[in-house]
Structure formats: structure tokens, C-alpha cells
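Supplementary Note 3. Input sequence used for the single-chain structure prediction.
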Amino acid sequence: MSEKQAIQKIKDVQEMQTVQSANHVETIANRQDIFLQEKYLWDYFIGRVFLHINKRQWAMLISCFGSIDQINWSQVFTNHLAFDIRFENGQTLEKAKMAFETFKHTIQNMGTQVLEPNQENFPSSLNLIADAPKILFGLGDLTILNKKKLVAIVGTRQPSAYGLRVAYDLAAFLARHNVGVVSGLASGIDTAAHKGALSEKGFTAAVVATGVHNVYPKANQSLYSAIIENGGAVISEKPLSENARRYDFPYRNRLISGLTRATVVIEASHKSGSLITAKYAAEQGRDVFALPGNIYAEVSKGANQLIFDGAVPLVDFGDILTSLNMKTMPFSQHPAIEQLSEIEKNVLHYLKKYNIIEIEYLRELTNLDAQTMYAVVAKLLLEDFCTYASLTSLQCLI
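The predicted structure, written as C-alpha cells, is reproduced below.
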């Protein structure tokens, strides 16, 4: 072998060793990632699913071990009475490990995605809130949660027709401006918000208090499916089909506000859970908007109180875009503008100019007869270019 060949062979061996070393380091890193994921899921499973540990018991465990991540479950099983944990069904650590394997396979088979704080797809905004979730379960496209600007729309389960219309129209408006809508899948305002976003093929995420496979309320089964099928997401701190306890709903609300840049309360009574969402949003440094309402209506008292306490009154959808450092879509770029006739475009021009305008004054500006005017208005209402501000006036929605 020549000297040149010998030197080349040494270089080849060194290069191979470098590649093997890099592969070894990558393997170790992957194992560490798998270990962390298993650790988060294991802590969740053993504490919440297998042992059903309550808040007081969690506090005792954290006081002893320092944090949930540092809990030594072997010691917990050995000294369970010291933490006031009682085994009624002969639970053992070995049984927990066996049940955990079944639990993991079930999650995988049901298509549930598991997100932990160390993962790239975990919503980065949630890492910044107090009492950040240690684990999330989801369905649908969870990657968008880190890619889009998001706004929460929440409110009462028993809204007025006006509240429903505002929630739907606002969500559609945000979707047209490429802003995602987050809500809680409840009946009423939540449902209207999700549907409004879907009407414009926008992204909407439902943050639920049940397991991600447990649709609540059952009446929203078709909406739940539509959200997932149309590129949206369903998120929860609970996996599979777990039921929600009463306190899970207000606790879930910190995630709705935490995921978003702004929270909008459409209608809410004094005792509405939406006020809890608004409180979380304010504590998290998010903008809070509230829809002004009838001072005699119970359904508006909570929202009106928020405004009194400093929330921004929702009087123009564009104000929300301003809070997101965005601009309203130019009139000419609205996707349905081209389908309008010249007469309809002219009416819409004045609607856009005045935002809220009396129908009779609009007719005078456009020089249309009453029959033509009301035919144009009917079409613009149907196409969601505007809505009624009162019985005799219109408000532009673009």
C-alpha cells in the first residue's frame, strides 16, 4: 500500500468514526425525547387516570418532591397513606405500568395527538401563562396554533339573536383576515363563533373540558366533526372520552385566553364562565373586548361590567385587527366583490364609507328606487357584507 493510499484509509476510518459518533449522539437525544414524552404522559396517567389524585393530594406531593416532574411514584406507592392516598382496588405500581401500556396503545389507536412543553408543536403562548399545562391532547391540525394569530370569542350559552349574529359575523370577519378563532364548543356564543369561522373556510379551535373524543354537548357532534374535517383542531388536557367535572370548565378557560392574542366576550351574565376567561386574559396580558348590551338585559350585565372595569367596547370589528397590528382587508380584495353588480358595488361603497347608515339615506345617496334598494340590501345581507344595526339601519361587515 502506498503512502497516499494509507493516508486516505486513515481519513476514511476517521470519517466513519465521526458519523458513528454523530449517530450515537442523535440516538441518545432521541431516547431522551422519548423519555421526556413518556415521563409527562406517565405522570399524567398515574396521577389523574390511575390514582385519581385530587388537588389537595397533588399539593402534598409537590410540597414533598418539589414539582410534578420530580415525583417518585415508587415512593408514593410505598408511603401512600402519608399523602392521604387510599388504594380501594388493590392498586400497585406493577398494575399501573401494565395499565399505562394499554393507555398508550389506546391513545395511538384513536389517533390522539399528545403534546408536551418540550415539543415544537406545543403552543408556545401556553408556556408563558401561569399554571401552564404539562400535557395536551388534540385532534386535527395542531401545528397552526403556533402559526396563526388567534382570537377567542366566548359568551353565554343562552344568547340573544343579536349576540348570536355578532359572534357569527365577527368570526367570519376574522377568518376572512386570516385570523384563527378559538372557543369552547359550548352551545350559544361558542357554537356561533365556530360556525362563523367555518363559513369562511377559516381555522377554528375548540378547547374542551372533556376528553378530546367526548363531544359535549352532544348536539354539537356535527360541528365537532366539521372543525376537524376542515383543518381545525380540538384540544384538551384530558385524553380519550373522559367526562368533565364541574371545576374543569372554568379551569379550561385559562387555555382559551392563553392561546390567543385577544379575548372577546359577546354576551355574559354576572355569573357567566366567560368572565373567568376575561379575567385570565387580563392576567395574561391579553386584550379584552366586550360587546356593549342592553342595560336591562341579564345576558348583557357581565359584558357591560367588563367595559366599566376597563375592557374595550366592541363597536367596530376592525378594532380587533388594530390590536393585532393588522389592517382591514382592502375593499377591492374581498373575495366575493367581483360577483356583485355595479349597482351592488356602489351601495356597498357607501356602506363601507359610513359603516353604519340609515337605509333611507343610503337609498338617497345611490339614487335608487325603493324596490331596487331593498333587493340589493337583501343580497348584501345574504352574502354577509352587512347586518342590521337597527330596524332601519345597516352596519358594514367588511
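Residues 253 and 277 are 5 Å apart (CA to CA). The longest helix spans residues 3-50.
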